[in-house]
Amino acid sequence: MKKKKILFLFLILGLMSSAILMYDKYFPSQSLAVFRTGDRITVWVITIILFIYYITTETKPQLVPSVLSSEKETGRDKDKPDVSFKDVAGLEEIKEELQETIDFINNSYKYRRMGAKIPKGILFYGPPGTGKTLLAKAVAGETNSTFLYASGSEFVEKYVGVGAKRVRTLFEKAKKEAPSIIFIDEIDAIGTKRNLESNNEKDQTLNQLLVEMDGFNTNETVIVIGATNRIDLLDEALLRPGRFDRHIFVGNPNVRAREQILEVHTKNKPLDKSIDIQDIAKKTHGLSGAQLANIANEAAIITVRNNKNFIGIEEFNAAIERVLAGLEVKNPTVLHKEKKTVAIHEAGHALVSKVLETDMVQKVSIVPRGQALGYVLKFPDEERYLLTQTELLNKITGLLAGRAAEELVFKEITTGAKDDLNKATDIAREMVCSYGMTPLGQIAVEDHYISQNFNLIRVEIKKIIDDCYKKAYTILDENEKLLHDISNTLLEQETLTSDELDEIFKKYEKPLDYAT
Fold first, then answer.
1. What is the rounded radius of gyration, in angstroms, for the C-alpha atoms of the chain?
2. Would 68 be classed as within a structural domain?
3. The domain spanning residue 292 has which CATH number?
4. Catalytic site includes residue 346
5. Is 65 annotated as a binding residue?
6. Burial of 4 (0-12, 13-18, 19+ CB in 10 A)
7. Which of 136, 166, 325, 391 falls between 20 and 30 A from 157, CA-CA?
8. Which domain holds residue 343?
9. Is the pLDDT of residue 124 over 50?
10. Per the annotation, does 126 bind a ligand?
């Protein structure tokens, strides 16, 4: 770099001298009369040579791979985020937990006086879209720290040693810009468990990360924040205290958090006065913050499409269906026979789910969306964290009710129950292998045990599925008139709301209590 600056200086001097001598050639002056023609040509030639040499050094081709000759910029460089905890809706418990870390960065002398050490690493783990990256940016924003972002995949290269070098460079930057926060997204890309079959380059990168996290100077305020969806894949050495001291689960928001998230994402949108954010929050059970943001954005897009000035409840309902069920097929080519089958199938789901009171049925539709020819939107009427064995069995019964309705009415089954069977089997497998809700006993079965004893576990899963299917068939058989009424209404209207479904139920005697 220094050599190039000196070369540039000589080039400027040469150009100035050449220009002066060129001017003197046409407008002679007495002071430059000592320069003969040969001297002038020499200055011009030297200037041309300097110019050519400078140009060639600027565009000199690299003879080695770029990943080895120059260091890759991993962190989008230094960045001071303008995000604070005010921009993070919900997650109150996590924000409270992080306040201690923020206070340590801002007032480190208090803690050092007591001999306390700052946590070296914080690991956010949980499902995607729950706000892990946003939390990391908010911590940096609250402390006015330098925020260095890197993705785990950026350290993975085919050239041995490149990943380790990038880790060293990242931590060197962090030390120079302290206080600073290093955020490594999808850390499982480099932090997976080491074994005999693992990649040598990836192991070197992980080893370098372990050394840097455990070895950097404690006087420099550098915090590493990692994020992953798969904490079970991470190496034990990475998770131990002294590296990632704190593990914080960032899960899907509860109803109160969903309400706060929706308020944040709708504050700059013109909402109709009839909109009740709390009601929308109840309808979006189990959705992540990213999905809620998408719903608010989709509602605004649909409003523009409908040439309206304010976002109404119809737009929000359409947005929820768009996110959950997929894109509506405008001109479906579904045969009348298939449409009737779909109507019976969805009516079966709605009837059994309502009778067993597994969830609140919000909407039943036979309008194709995505790959589904019909769907039933169901949400719990209250937040639940624990489910009983009976409630899980009722959920499976509701899932199998569509196929049971097909067999009851048409004496035949179709391929339409594929997704229902997958979900029902997943719940039954969890009951057998994780919840200890079968004759196998109060045990949790590990993955390797499942593969070795598949037949034994398959028998238990099949017994649960068969019993639930029989129960669904019985409920539908005893309420067949109600099933056909719901199905016929669906064929006429294509959709049924919760209130319209209630009106159909009122025509008939209350079905027997099957919930227990």
1. 34
2. no
3. 1.10.8.60
4. yes
5. no
6. exposed
7. 136
8. 336-506
9. yes
10. yes
Query: In terms of domains, do 131 and 50 share one?
Result: no
Sheet holding 121-125, edge to edge: 146-151, 180-185, 222-228, 121-125, 246-249
Q: Give the end of a domain, one of 293, 324, 355.
A: 324
Q: Is 38 annotated as a binding residue?
A: no
Cβ–Cβ under 8 Å, residues 347 and 375: no
DSSP string, 433-450: HTS--STT-S----HHHH
261 and 382 together in one domain: no
Catalytic one among 346, 382, 407, 480? Answer: 346
Question: Is 71 domain-assigned?
Answer: no
Task: Please say which residue of 298, 324, 350 terminates a domain.
Answer: 324
- Calpha distance 343→339 (Å, rounded): 6
Per residue in 17-38, pLDDT (tens digit) is 777 777 677 777 766 666 677 7
Give the model confidence (pLDDT) of 371-422 as tens digits: 778 888 887 766 777 889 999 999 999 999 999 999 999 999 999 899 999 9
Residue 117: inside a domain: yes
Please state, in angstroms and rounded to a whole number, the distance separating the CA atoms of residues 513 and 503: 19
Is 326 one of the annotated binding-site residues?
A: no
In a domain, 512, yes or no: no
Is 506 known as a binding-site position?
no
